[in-house]
Design brief:
Layout: E1 5-11, E2 19-28, H1 35-49, E3 56-61, H2 67-76, H3 78-83, H4 86-91, H5 98-104, H6 109-115
Parallel strand pairs: 2-3
Antiparallel strand pairs: 1-2
Helix pairs in contact: 1-2
């Protein structure tokens, strides 16, 4: 049983969306977050269960967590991210222009040359 995890459901009458459902994770101390924690709890549990990134909140105290570690651990666990499937991942970034990013790949000489010979 994961005692650090809580799910909060808040009723906000004047909010655009009256019911706010938030997944909250509390981590404390060095070593409380690792590559496997990111895989099992952030990717496979939180990203799988959330409808938007606004629903996920990790509260950390003394964990030494930073964005470089997160990116590294996400790369370590890219297979788990891929298991979420494209539509699921894209739903977290509705304003992201995936078409533009696809087109920009052709700026890379080796990518371009591998297709257009």
């Amino acid at each position: 049983m994961d005692y650090n995890f809580a799910r909060l459901v808040v009723l906000c009458i004047k909010c655009k969306e009256p019911n706010i459902d938030v997944l909250v994770e509390y981590k404390s101390g060095p070593g409380s977050i690792s590559s496997s924690t990111i895989k099992e709890q952030f990717i496979e549990r939180d990203l799988f269960n959330a409808n938007s990134l606004d629903q996920i909140q990790w509260s950390m105290e003394g964990t030494e967590m930073n964005k470089e570690k997160l990116v590294s651990w996400l790369m370590d666990n890219k297979d788990s991210i891929e298991n979420l499937k494209y539509d699921r991942i894209k739903s977290f970034f509705p304003n992201d222009n995936f078409t533009y990013r696809f087109i920009s790949k052709f700026n890379d000489e080796s990518f371009y040359n591998s297709i257009f010979k």
